Amino acid sequence: MATAYGPDTRDPQRSGGGMENRLAAKRFLPAALRAPVEARTWREFVYLMLSFPISTVLFCFAITMASLSAGLLITFLGIPLLAAGLAACRGLGVLERARARALLKLDVAEPAPVRGRTGGLMSWVGAVLKSGVSWRHLLYTLLHFPWAVFAFCVSLSLWTWGWAALTYPVYAWVFPAYAGIDGVQLYGDSTHNVYLDSPFELALTSAVGLVVVMATAWVIRGLAAVDRLMVSGLLGPSRLATRVTELESDRGVVVDTAAADLRRIERDLHDGAQARLVALAMDLGLAKEKLTDDPEAAAKMVDEAHGEVKVALQELRDLARGIHPAVLTDRGLDAALSAIASRCTVPVTVEVDLASRPAQAIEGIAYFTVSELLQNVSKHARATRASVDVWRSADRLMLQVTDNGRGGADLTAGSGLAGLTERLDAVDGILVVESPAGGPTKVTAELPWRG
Amino acid sequence: MRVVIAEDSVLLREGLTRLLTDLGHDVVAGVGDAEALIKTVGDLAGQDALPDVVVADVRMPPTHTDEGVRAAVRLRKEYPGIGVLVLSQYVEEQYATELLAGSSRGVGYLLKDRVAEVREFVDAVVRVAQGGTALDPEVVAQLLGRSRKQDVLAGLTPREREVLGLMAEGRTNSAVARQLVVSDGAVEKHVSNIFLKLGLSPSDGDHRRVLAVLTYLNS
Q1: From A331's CA, which of A136, A229, A416, B217 has a CA 20 to 30 Å away?
Q2: Residue A372, Cβ neighbours under 10 Å: how many?
């Protein structure tokens, strides 16, 4: 399966259940013919049928509350009553969202709950009245009612008529046997009557029925699509609120990543260079003690200490490069990526096709993405060669790392790739992994271009 | 002196072992985490061969947070006879307070850097093994700086403050005298002056003296 990312994951029609059934049916029937027997059509039909009674209740409730509170506005009672009515509409919205989730597979996020500033009754009333979400819920109950009645009538009559005509040959015998007529009367006046009774007419009726059944399926979808729009447009959080939630989560990822990076650096320092320097200090301390009575042992210790210093320097250098590689700042992506490619355990060809340099932050993320991907190649891919391509496509910076290894890259939560996906997501970037078992693996990353 | 070392970095564990062995002490066991430390000490206790002192790193697997301190507190409770010296990369006054809770007998808290001064470090280990106290100068400085008795502390002469710091580290009068290059008698005079100014009753035992000073600074 390809990496789930972007808007696709939020489109339940593509990733929702029933996918397998539809895939199986696909082999036998084209989409147009499949529609009437699909579970989705039936679910939506049930939705439209339920809409009528539910919407009637909602409408009556909303009208009653609205007019009652409008009437009482003269007294003080009207305002809290209106707020209570709006709050009740919001409560009913929960029900409607659940119904849409179950039958339309439409996942609409819960709008933010109303919170009064002080927690008192009056501030709650004020918050309910000021919240656009409340009024949109009220609007939904009012607008949805006529629509629900219309959709109910159209879909029910088409559906009944279609199936009745389609199955007409099956029960046509009932008419001569019990009703004393030859068949369904198509036309009749005092001079002549037309009955559907010959085999040709039976077949024709059934054929017309089939056409209507086919068409009904699509009519139902069309009607349900309008319901979808209403539910997502009027019962969801506002677009601004949605974006705020999205950005909040992105910011959370950024903060978490930064904190995790700092912890990693601290750990690396603590376990690496710091420990080495303590050991070095200890060695030199011992050597100092021995300098007078055992110069030979002291010399050996100084020698060891010298070795330790060199290792500590190496570790510090690696760590500093891990924080930010100097070559990236000085020479840009091409040089920096070539440097990490040369440290990879398999031969890597690097191709960077950029006319200018992107912003430093983007460069940094691109560098660490490639670095992480090449580390994966070294550790897991069992590849014999790999390649890195970087290019610009309009306002996106594209990175692609491919290898000829065994594929089957792990995308589950907690894996390096999942972490990378999160990081890129935080800057509005995208990571797509194509890694079938047996390979080859192709990982493409997209970053916004900032010059 | 019989020592058990708990330190997750192999490099440092071996360095410490070599250092202590070199100066004629017996390192009976070296372990890499707190659980193994408690188990090892338990085993040794079973053989009636308790070590004199345990030297433990604060940060050890699995969580790399304060395993060492928690293990040290536990060991001090279960085997009051052994000294526990905790080594840390950073000074955390909180850890020192936890370690000193109850008694300051046979307890130490030092920065890892102190191992560079081999003699002083081994002196500190020996002191802790014998029931004394070894507090890092930085911990003492933090305690002095944070103490709410600043006005009283301000009444001390600079030399007296120095002596107070060294005393709080757990040093004996003669060690203080050596450090400051003065006579034992002079140190004794400073100490009695300090006790007078802080309003503490002079006590003879070195570790009880430390406790008195620390309690005073912490209150």
Answers
A1: A416
A2: 18
Does A289 contact chain B (CB < 8 Å)? yes
Which chain B residues are within 8 Å of A283, Cβ to Cβ?
A: 15
pLDDT in tens, B19-62: 899 889 999 999 999 999 999 999 999 998 999 999 999 988 88
ipTM over 0.90: no
Residue of A nearest to B64 (CA): A267
Where is A425: in which H helix or E strand? helix A416-426
B86 close to B74: Cβ distance less than 8 angstroms = no
Quote the pTM value.
Answer: 0.59
pLDDT score recorded for residue B203: 65
Which residue stretches of chain A have pLDDT < 50? 1-22, 25
* pLDDT one-digit tens code per residue, B118-134: 888 999 999 999 988 89
- Domains belonging to chain A, first-starting first, are 39-234 (no CATH), 245-323 (1.20.5), 327-448 (3.30.565.10)
Q: How far apart are CA A432 and CA A42, in angstroms?
A: 35
A285 CB near a chain B CB, below 8 Å?
yes
Among A267, A282, A292, A311, most B C-beta atoms within 10 A, so best to mutate, is A282
The whole-angstrom distance between residue A260's C-alpha and the CA centroid of its chain comes to 25
Which residues of chain A neighbour B113 with C-beta distances below 8 Å?
Answer: 278, 281
Q: Which two tokens stand for residue B56?
A: 């433990």
Res B57: pLDDT: 92
Task: Please report the pLDDT score of residue A158 as a whole number.
Answer: 93
Q: Write the DSSP assignment of A174-243 as a string of letters.
A: HIIIIISSSSEEEEE-SS-EEEE-SHHHHHHHHHHHHHHHHHHHHHHHHHHHHHHHHHHHHSS--HHHHH
Q: How far is B60 from chain A (nearest CA, A)?
A: 10
**Looking at chain A, how many residues does it have?**
451
